[in-house]
Amino acid sequence: FIVVVGFAGIEATYGLWTETRFGWGPRQIGLAFMLIGVLGAVCQGWLTGRLARRTSGPAAEPVAILVLGTCLGVLRYARVDLMDVPLALAIAVGLWACWRVAEGAPRSLLLVTGLAAAAATLLKGPVGPLLMAAPGAAYLARRRALVSALPWLVAAAALAVVLAAPWYLAM
What we know:
Blueprint: H1 2-22, H2 26-56, H3 60-69, H4 72-77, H5 84-102, H6 110-124, H7 127-142, H8 146-170
């Protein structure tokens, strides 16, 4: 909510500021916002391609960029005051931590998964941790890191419960 309100304020303030400071009209302000959007999309595609190349090889880079380009639903709803986009971010952060641990990062990074699970629970209820658990466990198991990560996964789950439970108990 704070992010949506903050960015709405920035957009309105930017328009008034550029009109006063530079004498810009709706056309110039619209072009500036278009440039920001295009640069953001190009950077997101480039980063997605680089991550795909790093994790799955050079052949995966164009496929990842193509898949990202066809996922316009996230872009459409990114400006709406819904909890789905922050939920997707929380799930992505939690799964990123599982992926890094499976690739050899310290197991303590799984506590980030616990924080992400707590955030996801506060955003949309238990659906977030459920959507995080199966792929995270599958990736850790595939890399033969699940058994050694179990104590940290239990700690991550406990952290998520400690952070999210008070809100539900207070309701």
